[in-house]
Amino acid sequence: MRARTLGLLAAQTLVLSALGCRAVPSHPRWEHRLDHGVVRAEDPAQADEVAALVRAALPSVQALPGTHRRPLVLHVVEQLPNELMDGATFHIVDLPDDAGNGSDTYPLEWIEICADALPRRRLSLIAHELTHFYLGEVWGVLPQVVEEGLAQLVSTQVDPRYGAEIRVENAVALATAISGGLTVEMPRPAEASAPADGEPELVPWWVSGEVDTSQLPTAREALALDANGMWTIEDAGSQRVLYGLGYLLASRIGVDGLYALCQRARAEGLERVPAEWLFEAAELDLEDPLLWKPAIRGLLGEQEHLVFVRRFDRRR
């Protein structure tokens, strides 16, 4: 049978969040006040729209164990510091001398999202950033890569429709890094317009992404990266691999399992949850990524297959 190549990662943007550093926040002019904070944007309708999405996502985020209850500051901006980013959570590096401590004007921590983020993924993006923003002190020992995976996991629960796309991106990125890609059964192009009561013939397609493997750390090295370390990896495909690894671990361990590991690490006086603990809890081999293939394939179900078909149709 004939195999075809379907590249899925070339145009994907990323959410590189979890506490980057800025001197001061941006200040869009329109405000939408919330009971628990403020959303600011240059357009009042956009501020209202984002505020509604915050209200939709917040209950699931605040239901996580070990979250803060603190005022939210979220700004919708035209551009973030890194062109790969369409959402980020920042903390203050250097407060002005006359600034209040943690006020709306000079918050100690805030979220920025890009105004041009795809409408179909804004709820997922906001849920992702809210997760970073509200995670409390106990979570501070979780490796950054896994925190990104946790934020993705929460976002897929808040927005299941976009969650299938996240799982597809993660599976393709991981499979590309490990073995060059993966095979997906797809309708034969000539039969894509077959009658609704007919079953189109399926043929194997080789699906791969664009990953500069020279920039990829090992799994152990990836779990040692902090937020700044993740930002130093410039290749978008390699960034997606790190997100995929974080999601694979987080989805297999679960929220409560991750929280228990963080509590254990803090009780033992560790600065970070060890990689060995995480891979043992996820039932994955730390040293041999080739053994992850069944787990990666397990990310893909019926909804994910529909994502492949939609993207295939756009590339016919």
Please name the defining characteristics of this protein.
316 residues; alpha/beta; Zincin-like; 2 domains; six-stranded mixed sheet; globular
Summarize it.
The chain is α/β, with parallel strands linked by helices.
What does this entry look like structurally?
- The chain has two domains: 4-12 and 161-314, no CATH class; 20-140, 2-Layer Sandwich (Zincin-like).
- β3 (30-34) and β4 (37-41) form a beta hairpin.
- It is globular, with a radius of gyration of 20 Å.
- The protein has helices at residues 44-62, 122-134, 144-158, 160-179, 219-222, 227-231, 236-253, 255-267, 275-282, 293-297, 302-314; strands spanning 4-7, 20-22, 30-34, 37-41, 72-77, 87-92, 109-114, 182-187, 202-208.
- α1 (44-62) packs across α3 (144-158).
- A six-stranded mixed beta sheet has the order 2-6-7-5-4-3. The protein has a three-stranded mixed beta sheet with strand order 1-9-8.
- The longest helix is centred in the middle third of the chain and has 20 residues, at 160-179.
- The chain is 42% helix and 15% strand.
- The protein is α/β, with parallel strands linked by helices and 316 residues long.
Spans of 5+ residues with little confidence (pLDDT < 50)?
1-21
User: What is the number of domains?
Assistant: 2
Strand composition percent: 15-25%
> DSSP helix count?
11
Radius of gyration: 20 Å
- The side-by-side strand order for the widest beta sheet comes to 2-6-7-5-4-3
Task: Report on the biggest sheet.
Answer: 6 strands, mixed
* Overall pLDDT score: 85
The percent of residues in helical segments reads 40-55%
The counted number of beta strands is: 9
User: Pairing-aware structural class of the strands and helices?
Assistant: alpha/beta
The run of helices and strands is EEEEHEEEHHHEEHHHHHHH
From the spread of the alpha carbons, the general shape counts as globular
What is the terminal-to-terminal distance?
18 Å
